[in-house]
Amino acid sequence: MERLRIPSLPILGGRMVPLLRHYCVFGTHHPLIQAAGRNQNLNGGCWSVQCTASDSGTSASDVNGARKDFALPDSLLHDARILYCASPAMGHNKESHPESNKRVPAIVDALEKLELTPKHRGSQVLEIQNFYPASLDDVARVHSRTYISGLEKAMSRASDEGLIFIEGTGPTYATHTTFQESLLSAGAGIALVDSVVAASKLGPSPPLGFALVRPPGHHAVPKGPMGFCVFGNIAVAARYAQHQHGLKRVMIIDFDVHHGNGTCDAFYDDPDIFFLSTHQLGSYPGTGKMDLVGQGSGEGTTLNLPLPGGSGDYSMRCAFDEVVVPSVQRFKPDIILVSAGYDAHVLDPLAGLQFTTGTFYMLASSIKELARELCGGRCVFFLEGGYNLQSLSSSVADTFHAFLDEPSLAAQFDDPAVLYEEPTQRIKAAIEKVRHLHSL
Question: What distance in Å separates the CA atoms of residue 427 and residue 290, rounded to the nearest whole number?
């Protein structure tokens, strides 16, 4: 598989922004951001999203120093329970690839059908649409400038060839829109951090954020793409929260079925960012061993809990109560960010755990309570994996129910007949080992 060569190149020369239209538009209005172009058919799942460069010649990086915090009006933030952004990256697509442009539209369709959108919920649920793409400076706090400029340069080859592979293990592909759409997805997380932080200053229960974005990010390493991932969306948001809002201590919880090696690498020696990952033992990319706990001043702020194949709801509940909760309580974060991968679902084709929709409801509800208890409710979820469109969309929808303190609808989606006995003794042994290793 041909790998992307990353030469040293000039930075982005044009600002890429989405042209979007939906039933509600809230947020920062700017002459470069216009309303148009998303055509959604809820039954057919037909989307059309365009990106364009402004005529002003403004670089995304040019506005980094001048850009104000993204924030909705206080009157909207006060009543909101959920804030979300959708960045479906419709141009970044390879047919028959599991990480396709069908993923985010499937989720939005489910939210609409289950009446979890602003159209049905009014001020309780708000969609932020007019958000900036991440600036190059935002991304460069995580990724090397050489990688960023090399990816931008590769867009001309992707335009000529239609699709290129930029990393072989996934394999990770790119089209001519991948660079700007990846900046936009990273920017969605930044917009949500801004708004959740603003809301937390108005009261003790700010809305939770959810970045419904792709391509996913947690495998992207500082020097390049990996495992379907282009830019580390959650890592970019973590550094932004520190840099822009002074939220020094950031907790990242990653419950994707695969280890978030890119996020782990980015913060492995950082004492102020605690990365905690639960993932399937032995799954791609083969990283995330339990004895990897951080290094230097960051020793102890990386926690990996590999779960044996077949682990399900019981195993995750035990892991959450006995490992996640005491870790977060001891760290005392200023904000919690979540790599929300839904590929641990029993129906997902790319792994071998047996989480259910109810498992994800439990995780969302429990993380929400931890955020309320420890960091003023500041919490943003970021979509990572999840490749069975039915289980992905129903699980994200039930995550929204958990955010709203409403009952789970998991019984409507989950089929107990597909489940089998969990390896409870092995999971208990793993939990005891990691508790001992981290003195929990």
Answer: 13
